[in-house]
Here is the input.
Amino acid sequence: MNIINVDNSNIDTEHICCAIADKKGEHCVSSKKIWLKECYNDGLIFKKLDVRGKVFIEFIPGENAWCPIIAEKYMFINCFWVSGQFKGQGYANKLLEECISAAKLQGKKGLVILSSKKKMPFLSDPKYLKHKGFQVCDIAEPYFELLYLPFEIGLEKPRFKECCKKGVTDKKGMVLYYSNQCPHTEKYAPMITEIAKKRGIDFTLLKYKTKEQAQNAPSPFTTYSFFYEGEFVTNEILSDNKFIKFLDEKD
Here is the structure.
């Protein structure tokens, strides 16, 4: 099976995510594709295995990452996913090699990626990354780790911006920050907003529409970050049932 590039020439016909398959989810997938098209202008590269499945890597120059980091001349891995039947067959290694080659070709200093102290939903596996030579270069509350793979010794380390290091926001009540970096957000963000409204809960939904907004976020994971009374709660994209459970626990 081959690794292919998904770009403006084929994005309208290529399958980018098998997790949302029914017709009701088409607008969610299209929201991700629109986001990709906009980011192509900033140097984003999307590579995937030529199958219908979640086997892909997506990366962009650090200066244009939708993440509050300082990573000049590094390539930021925005999303790296190998799942299901495709695990354990070397595809993760192959995709990572493709990313390294592309970064070196562009004269980058190395790679940088957002991860966590232990494996968390929607974040890349720190155990695998550290096995491949990635090192921790910065941390942010409550569990985020910024990992980097330098191509040379003695290079300046990427780091988080101060705005995201403490895991707090000045907004009260329940606040959800999100973007269209993942197709799931366009489905579940409005869904839990509606649930909160029906319960009369103070809920604020804030969408990052530009990289500049994302680069000044209160949390490193700008795809989805949920806060309660100013404190970060989770980066996991909450289903309706999980959100209702959270609400019931707060009652």
Remarks:
- The first helix runs from residue 26 to 40.
- Residues 3-160 form a domain with the Aminopeptidase fold (CATH 3.40.630.30).
- Helices lie at 26-40, 91-105, 126-131, 183-198, 211-214, 240-250.
- The mean pLDDT is 94.
